[in-house]
Amino acid sequence: MTKTITKGKVIACLISLAITGCLWNVFFPAGGSGANIILGLFIAFFFIQYFCSYFGGLIDQEFFPGGSKERARAYRSLERFIKESRAHFNSIKKSKKRQKKVGQKVFDEFEQAMIQASLVLKSVASEWDDKNSSLKHEQMLKEAHARLEKAGKVLFEMDRNWRFLLGIPSLIIALFFALVLREFVIEPYQIPSGSMIPSLLVGDHLFVSKFYYGLSKPFAKDPSFLIQWRKPKVGDVVVFKAPDYVGRHAGQAWIKRVVATEGQSLKVNNSIIYIDDKPYMHIVPEEIVTYMDFYGFGTANGGVWREQRARKTTEQIGEVKHPIYLPIFPLSPNVGPYWPTVDQEELPGLTCDATSCKVKEGFIFVMGDNRGNSADSRTWGALPVSRVKGKALFIWMSVDGSGQSVQIGPFSMPKFRFDRWFTGII
Fold this sequence. Notes:
By secondary structure, the chain is an alpha+beta fold.
């Protein structure tokens, strides 16, 4: 009961591990993307810690009391009351205004009562194995609890942030700042498909700057800016809310690279993008590569991994040099080596003729770096600038869902790509 590691805590730890193990694979199945896994680890850690602390003490109190359940219950009750009282007492000490409100005399009397209660705990703990002293110990513990409670009533009636309100203001402030941060400054995003391979892989977890282009309107159904101080430029990797005309995935958060802005004319000739008749050159020789791509994201079966082949090279857009994959066998004419196609239909945000398309005012043209497997502006049209949520900043975590998951006891941990953690996005 009085030791750091007790039978009750060991039993509680085993029970909490079993519960966590049962629930873990429900939320983080083998081969998954690892979405929210860091949050899951924190929750699991604090759950196990709380379960061991609270229920471990309860098990000790009821099943391993050291000879007297009454003494064990009195000991645990006083121990928890001292802990709660100390936390609140320390919060009052940090504020001179609250100390002045309480008064030094009340403050000192409570501090003395808390010290005396702590000394009683130590005294009882040192004689725990003396079974003949159980009744005396029980009386000592109850008297110490009563003294501390009496002193606490005077103190906490004057300062009413007690128990229920303990820590609530700090929690509210933390949640408020987290909400403000997400709404205006930075937002997490996970790569769900292979349209940005090789720059971004399926399972990469990013942070997106919502502050980069302007001040976002909070809690708006669709992205919009209260104030916009810059517009997306060519080479930027942007996250946006897919417009209605993309099809069944409308409204989802997508990520693509900006290759042309309003007023610019665009065409693709032999897999090279030309903007106003100036090419984005491929600056390294092509090589055939094999990679894993993910198909069927958002479908009922959860999608499937497939091995694919592509021609890898590096494209230069202004000062931005980034890798791209070109198709060996294009899946459709729109993602082939020539665009616009002969039978190209008029697409939203574009004015097209037989040789090129011009981006209308208020729109940008976006493409995936995996040019043979990307549903982008070549297929559904230009993107309204107003749909842009922010600019992709860096990868903070990367999970390889195509690889074999790592089993740690009952837990199935995803295979991490540690070499991609905390890397910038080109």
